[in-house]
C-alpha cells in the first residue's frame, strides 16, 4: 500500500491539497522561532519548547523535553515513535486535556498553555475532535445517539442535534447504519461512528491516537480512506501510529524518541530523496 497522493505530484513545487498549501520546513522553522508571538491564524497548532514532566513520588519522568511543532490548516501529520516516547502526552496537550510545565502552545492564534481548566474545557469542546484506539462508544445507544452526545453536552436542541449527527454519519459513509447499536456494527464501522462523533462539533483539528491499533490491516485501510477523504475536504488531522504503513497516508511524519523530535519528513522530502 502506498500513500494516496504521492504519485500525483510530478514536480517539486509547493505541495497543495485543494486550495491550501502545505507548510515548508523553512516556514515552520520561522514560526516556531518567534517565541512569545501569536502565530498567523493559518497555523492551527504551534508549540514552542513544550515540556511535560510527571512527578512519580520524587522521581521525575520527563515525558516531553522541549517540543517545537507547527501545523498549518489542512495538513495531515503523523506522529511516530516507540512506546513511552511521549506521543500520547503530546496529544493530550494538543487536545487541551492537559497543560505543559513549560513552553507555549498556540491553537488557532490563541495561547492555550496558560489557560484555566474551565477556559481549556471550552476551547477543547469547540476546537478538538478526539479518536482513540478503543472506540469508547456507549453500548446501549445507537450510532446516531453516540454521535449526538457532544451536542447534548453543548446544549444543542434535539432537532438540530439529529440533523448534524446524521450529516456527520453520512460523512463517514454510515448514513444507512444510524439506528444500529455498536454490537450490530463491524470494528471498522464502530471506529467510523467514533470519527463521526469527533467531527460533529466541526473541530478545527481531528486528533487520533493509534486509531487503527485494534483493527486488522484491511479494516485499517478502510479507516485510512476515511481520514484521507476528510483531509481532502480540508480537515486538519494529527494521528499517532506505530505503523509505517499507516503513517504513509499522512503528508508529514514526525518521529519521537525520549520526549524529543528526532526526525521530521514530508512527502516532498521523500520524493526529493527518491530522485537523488
Ligand atoms: P507513548 O504514547 O509514546 O507510548 P506516553 O506519552 O504515554 O508515551 O508516555 C511518555 C512517558 O511518560 C512514559 O515514560 C510514561 O511512563 C510517562 N507517563 C505518561 N503518562 C503519565 C502519567 N499520567 N503519570 C506518570 N507518568 C506518565
Ligand atoms: Mg500512547
Task: Describe the model.
This protein has a single domain, classed as Rossmann fold (3-Layer(aba) Sandwich), CATH 3.40.50.300. 34% of the residues lie in helices and 26% in strands. It has 9 helices and 12 strands. The strands form 3 sheets. Strands 8-9-10-5-11-12 form a 6-stranded mixed sheet, sandwiched between helices. It is globular. It starts with 15 loop residues before the first strand and ends with a helix. Mean pLDDT is 90; it is low at 1-20. Adenosine-5'-diphosphate binds at residues 54, 56, 61, 63, 81, 83-89.
Q: What layout of secondary structure does this protein have?
A:
Layout: E1 16-17, E2 20-21, H1 25-33, E3 43-56, E4 59-72, E5 76-80, H2 87-94, E6 102-107, E7 110-111, H3 117-127, E8 128-131, H4 143-153, H5 158-171, H6 187-199, E9 205-209, H7 217-232, E10 236-240, H8 244-247, E11 252-257, E12 260-266, H9 267-275
Parallel strand pairs: 5-10, 5-11, 8-9, 9-10
Antiparallel strand pairs: 1-2, 3-4, 3-6, 6-7, 11-12
Helix pairs in contact: 4-5, 4-6, 5-6, 6-7
Name its key features.
single chain; 276 residues; alpha/beta; Rossmann fold; six-stranded mixed β-sheet; four-stranded antiparallel β-sheet; 9 helices; 12 strands; 26% strand; disordered N terminus; binds adenosine-5'-diphosphate; binds magnesium ion
Amino acid at each position: 500500500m502506498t500513500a494516496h497522493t504521492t504519485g500525483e505530484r510530478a514536480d517539486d513545487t509547493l505541495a497543495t491539497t485543494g486550495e491550501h498549501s502545505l507548510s515548508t520546513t523553512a516556514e515552520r522553522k520561522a514560526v516556531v522561532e518567534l517565541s512569545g508571538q501569536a502565530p498567523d491564524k493559518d497555523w492551527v497548532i504551534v508549540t514552542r519548547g513544550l515540556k511535560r514532566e510527571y512527578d512519580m513520588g520524587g522521581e521525575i519522568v520527563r515525558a516531553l523535553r522541549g517540543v517545537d511543532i507547527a501545523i498549518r490548516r489542512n495538513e495531515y501529520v503523523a506522529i511516530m515513535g516507540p512506546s513511552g516516547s511521549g506521543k500520547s502526552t503530546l496529544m493530550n496537550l494538543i487536545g487541551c486535556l492537559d497543560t505543559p510545565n513549560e513552553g507555549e502552545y498556540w491553537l488557532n492564534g490563541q495561547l492555550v498553555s496558560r489557560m484555566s481548566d474551565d477556559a481549556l474545557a471550552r476551547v477543547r469542546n469547540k476546537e478538538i475532535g478526539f479518536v482513540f484506539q478503543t472506540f469508547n462508544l456507549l453500548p446501549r445507544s445507537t450510532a446516531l445517539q453516540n454521535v449526538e452526545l457532544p451536542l447534548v453536552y453543548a446544549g444543542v436542541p434535539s432537532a438540530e442535534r439529529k440533523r448534524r449527527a446524521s450529516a456527520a454519519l453520512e460523512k463517514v459513509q454510515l448514513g444507512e447504519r444510524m439506528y444500529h447499536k455498536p454490537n450490530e456494527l463491524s470494528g471498522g464501522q464502530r471506529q467510523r461512528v467514533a470519527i463521526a462523533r469527533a467531527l460533529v462539533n466541526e473541530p478545527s483539528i481531528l486528533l487520533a491516537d493509534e486509531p487503527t491499533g485494534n483493527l486488522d490491516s484491511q479494516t485499517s485501510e478502510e479507516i485510512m480512506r476515511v481520514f484521507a477523504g476528510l483531509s481532502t475536504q480540508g480537515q486538519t488531522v494529527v494521528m499517532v501510529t506505530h505503523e509505517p504503513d499507516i503513517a504513509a497516508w499522512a503528508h508529514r511524519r514526525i518521529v519521537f524518541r525520549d520526549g524529543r523530535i528526532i526526525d521530521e519528513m514530508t512527502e516532498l522530502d521523500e520524493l526529493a530523496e527518491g530522485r537523488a
